[in-house]
Design goal:
Elements: E1 4-14, E2 21-32, E3 37-41, H1 48-56, E4 63-68, E5 71-74, E6 87-90, H2 102-106, H3 116-126, H4 143-155, E7 161-165, H5 173-189, E8 194-198, H6 201-207, E9 210-215, E10 218-223, H7 225-230, H8 235-240, E11 245-251, E12 257-260, E13 263-266, E14 275-280, E15 285-301, E16 305-312, E17 318-324, E18 334-339, E19 344-347
Parallel strand pairs: 3-8, 3-9, 6-7, 7-8
Antiparallel strand pairs: 1-2, 1-4, 4-5, 9-10, 11-12, 11-14, 12-13, 14-19, 15-16, 15-18, 16-17
Helix pairs in contact: 3-4, 4-5
Length: about 350
């Protein structure tokens, strides 16, 4: 397996008819260390699948460079074609050959000399499927099992990089979670370098070593899941990753606390700005005995916890609190709310 380095990569698509252009990937620089899994996260249309296709070699960049270790595969001279890049690719639906059994699917990209049967068994073990699945056809497998076979097929030739294009999007919630964990374990056991494209924030945060967030083709932030969640680049990213409420606030003289609609809050880092945008996550909004009055507008009950949508009595500011399921209030109740822990703050934008 190789590390993956994308440097200043741009891809532009011409629009139809009017001569305009769409910048799908805009000057993206990203490093994926050897043996690690990076999740490329973003909403539909942000350029994440285009980036994956550029790495695979299905598209050529208009600017920039892509390297596997020190080997340039795109951007300098003639690009290396997809079939010689040694890339493993797992699409959304697995795309198994329906007329072949599991063993033949896994062995499809392997040399036809000896050892194929042993490699198939090794891959089945790696993706946590019984060896007797080797003789089954794809239609005899569940969706999660098909995706594990697709991963086994991608890993069998020992590729330089494994690319996963929203591989769990067609699975139901519980199967998506268990399959995602199994796939992540298999990638790490194989010491594979992986690039996972997803629009699911919890999937990106829970499975990957690094999260890279794209917005309108640009890389907004890349870092560990904890860094992206706890210290997002801007309020928009905070709202996208994990959900958050943005509140205007005024910093105190020391720059370590601020006053906002929820009262006085502690800042996660000192700020030199007087006017701030404060980011408060749902798990930081708590119901207290002596806080700011709020009305309960809606309650979404999930069993172990509940999302409580509130509006502050003073100004109608909307926010969400996460509480344990049995302690959830009822719609129409008036409650008192406060903030637990330090909040992240950004300088407020200056308007002319």
């Amino acid at each position: 397996m190789s590390s993956l380095t994308v440097t200043g990569v741009t891809k532009v698509f011409p629009a139809r008819g009017d001569g305009s252009r769409t910048v799908a990937v805009d000057d993206v620089t990203l490093h994926v260390p050897h043996g690690s899994l990076t999740a490329v996260l973003g909403p539909s249309g942000c350029g994440k699948t285009t980036l994956l296709r550029l790495v695979a070699g299905f598209l050529a960049p208009d600017a920039g460079e892509i390297r596997f270790d020190d080997r340039v595969v795109a951007g300098a001279g003639r690009p290396v074609p997809p079939q010689t890049r040694r890339v493993g690719y797992v699409p959304q639906e697995g795309a198994l050959f329906p007329h072949l059994d599991v063993a033949a699917n896994i062995a499809f990209g392997l040399p036809r000399d000896g050892g194929r049967a042993d490699r198939v068994e090794e891959m089945l073990d790696l993706v946590e499927l019984p060896r007797d699945f080797a003789g089954r056809r794809p239609h005899e497998l569940s969706g999660g099992q098909q995706q594990r076979v697709a991963l086994a097929r991608a890993l069998a030739p020992s590729p330089s990089v494994v690319l996963l294009d929203e591989p769990f999007s067609s699975l139901d919630a519980s199967l998506r979670e268990s399959t995602g964990r199994a796939v992540a374990r298999a990638l790490r056991a194989a010491h594979a370098t992986g690039l996972l494209v997803t629009h699911d924030q919890s999937e990106a945060l829970s499975l990957s070593d690094q999260v890279a967030v794209l917005r309108a083709g640009r890389l907004i932030q890349a870092g560990s899941p904890a860094d992206v969640y706890m210290a997002p680049h801007d309020p928009e990213l905070a709202r996208f990753v994990g959900g958050a409420t943005s509140l205007p606030g005024e910093s105190d003289a020391a720059g370590t606390a601020a006053t906002c609609a929820l009262g006085r809050v502690t800042l996660s880092q000192p700020s030199s700005a007087d006017h701030l945008v404060l980011v408060v996550r749902p798990d930081q909004v708590v119901l207290v005995a002596d806080g700011v009055p709020a009305r309960v507008d809606d309650v979404s009950f999930y069993g172990h916890d509940a999302a409580v949508r509130l509006s502050l009595a003073a100004d109608g500011t909307a926010l969400v609190a996460r509480v344990t399921g049995p302690s959830a209030p009822s719609v129409g109740d008036t409650v008192q709310v406060g903030v637990a822990g330090a909040v992240h703050a950004y300088p407020a934008p200056v308007h002319d």
